[in-house]
Write a structure and sequence with these properties.
The structure is a single chain. By secondary structure, this protein is an alpha/beta fold. It is about 40% helix and about 15% strand. It is built from 14 helices and twelve strands. The chain has a six-stranded mixed beta sheet with strand order 3-2-1-4-9-6, with helices on both faces. A four-stranded mixed beta sheet has the order 5-10-7-8. Strand 1, helix 1 and strand 2 form a beta-alpha-beta unit. Helix 1 runs parallel beside helix 2 and helix 8 runs parallel beside helix 11. The longest helix is centred in the last third of the chain and has 23 residues. It starts with 5 loop residues before the first strand and ends in a 10-residue tail after the last helix. The C terminus is likely disordered.
C-alpha cells in the first residue's frame, strides 16, 4: 500500500510540557510534508501562549496535508484526542503515534508493504525508550537510529532506557478503528487506554481470553513478561527479530503530577474490562506462567513469550545469542546468565521446532 493511503494521527495537549511538545509538533509536520504523508492532530484547545502559537503554526500549513480535530476539556484525555483525530481521517489507513515517537520513513514504507500483503490485520511496532543522550543524537536521522539499535543489542544502555512491547504504535484500517468504537474515553490522564484498545482489537481478531489477562505486572525485559502484556507483545516479535523499532524521546516525569496519578484509576477500569470479557467468554483457563511437560514428564515453567520468540528466531534463521539483551531486566549479571541459559537449553518438545540454531558454548 502507498503512503497516499496513510494518515498519521497524534493527540496534542499543551497542559503539560507545552514548549517541548510544540517543538515536536513542528518536527512531525516537517517530516510529513517532506514525505507526502497526511497528518491529523487531535487537539485539546486551551488558552495558553503555546496554544496560540500552535494555532498560528497549523494555519500556516497546507490544510490538505495537516488537519486538526478540536476538543475542549480540563483533564488530559488522550483517548478523546485520538478519536477526534481519527474522525477527520479520509484515508484507508491510520497510524497511531504520540508526539514523543520518532519513526523513520523506511519503517513506514516497510509496514505499509507488509500490510498490503495482508501479512497481518494490524501492525504493532516495538518502541525503544531513549535516554537523554540517545534523544539528542537521534536528531541526526536514520543513521543515528541504526547506531542506537546496534548499541542496544550490544547490551549497552547508553542510549536506551528500555524496550516497550507491546506499544501503542499501531497501524490499522480506519474502518477497523471505527468498528471498535475507537478508544474508551473513560480513561483520563496517563496509561491503560492503549491496553484497553489492544484488548478489543486482539479480541476482534481471534484472541482466546484466558485468566492470564488479569495479570498486570510491568517488566523492563519484555521477553520475561507475563499476563496481558505478554499476550499483546507477541505481535511485536517479528519486528524485534528484524531490529525494526520506533523511538520514544526522553522527557522528565513528575510522578506526583495528576496526569500520572490517574494511572492507578485507569488500571482499575482496565481490570474491570478484562473481568467483563472473561465473564462473557467460555474460558480456557491457563496459569499465569505457561507450563509444558518435557520428555521426562517433569513440568517446565516459562514466561509465555519465550516459545513464540524461539520459534520465530528459528524460522528467521537467526542466532539467539544476538538477542541476549531482550532477557535483561536489570538483574545481577550472574543471575541473568543462568536465566538465559535455562531457556536457551529447553528441549525441542517445549517449542515445537528444532533448536539446532542455538549455538552451544
Amino acid at each position: 500500500m502507498s503512503i497516499n493511503e496513510l494518515t498519521i494521527v497524534f493527540p496534542v495537549d499543551f497542559g503539560r510540557r507545552g514548549a517541548d511538545l510544540l517543538a515536536r509538533v513542528k518536527a512531525h509536520a516537517e517530516f510529513a510534508m517532506q514525505h507526502g504523508i497526511r497528518l491529523v492532530f487531535g487537539y485539546n484547545q486551551r488558552l495558553s501562549k503555546i496554544d496560540f502559537e500552535f494555532q498560528r503554526y497549523v494555519e500556516s500549513l497546507s490544510k490538505e496535508s495537516v488537519q486538526v480535530g478540536i476538543v475542549k476539556t480540563e483533564e488530559v484525555n488522550l483517548a478523546k484526542l485520538r478519536n477526534v483525530a481519527v474522525d477527520k481521517v479520509q484515508t484507508t489507513l491510520v497510524l497511531l503515534l504520540d508526539l514523543d515517537i520518532v519513526i523513520s520513513i523506511e519503517l513506514v514504507r516497510t509496514v505499509l508493504y507488509q500490510f498490503g500483503k495482508r501479512e497481518a490485520l494490524f501492525v504493532m511496532l516495538p518502541c525503544l525508550y531513549l535516554t537523554e543522550k540517545g534523544s539528542k543524537i537521534i536528531a541526526n536521522g536514520d543513521v543515528a537510529g541504526e547506531y542506537i539499535v546496534k548499541d542496544f543489542f550490544a547490551r549497552s544502555r547508553r542510549y536506551v532506557q528500555h524496550l516497550a512491547m507491546p506499544s501503542s504504535v499501531i497501524l490499522l484500517e480506519k474502518k477497523e478503528y471505527v468498528m471498535l468504537n475507537g478508544f474508551d474515553e473513560s480513561y483520563h490522564g496517563h496509561g491503560y487506554e492503549d491496553f484497553d484498545f489492544m484488548l478489543r482489537l486482539f479480541s476482534k481478531n481471534g484472541l482466546n481470553p484466558t485468566q492470564s489477562l488479569m495479570f498486570d505486572e510491568p517488566y523492563k525485559a519484555p521477553l520475561l513478561s507475563r499476563g496481558f502484556r505478554a499476550v499483546f507483545a507477541e505481535q511485536c516479535i517479528d519486528h524485534v527479530i528484524n531490529k525494526a523499532f520506533v523511538f520514544h524521546l526522553y522527557h522528565k516525569k513528575a510522578h506526583d503530577d495528576l496526569y500520572y496519578r490517574k494511572r492507578i484509576d485507569n488500571a482499575k477500569i482496565f481490570k474491570q474490562k478484562v473481568q467483563q470479557l472473561l465473564q462473557n467468554d467460555s474460558l480456557s483457563v491457563t496459569p499465569l506462567g505457561c507450563e509444558q511437560q518435557n520428555e521426562t514428564g517433569s513440568v517446565v515453567e516459562y514466561p509465555s513469550l519465550i516459545p513464540a520468540f524461539y520459534r520465530k528466531i528459528a524460522l528467521a534463521g537467526r542466532d539467539v545469542n544476538d538477542y541476549f539483551v531482550l532477557f535483561d531486566a536489570g538483574l545481577k549479571k550472574g543471575f541473568k546468565k543462568r536465566l538465559f541459559e535455562k531457556y536457551r537449553n529447553l528441549k525441542i518438545e517445549i517449542f515445537g521446532v528444532k533448536n539446532d540454531f542455538v549455538k552451544k558454548n
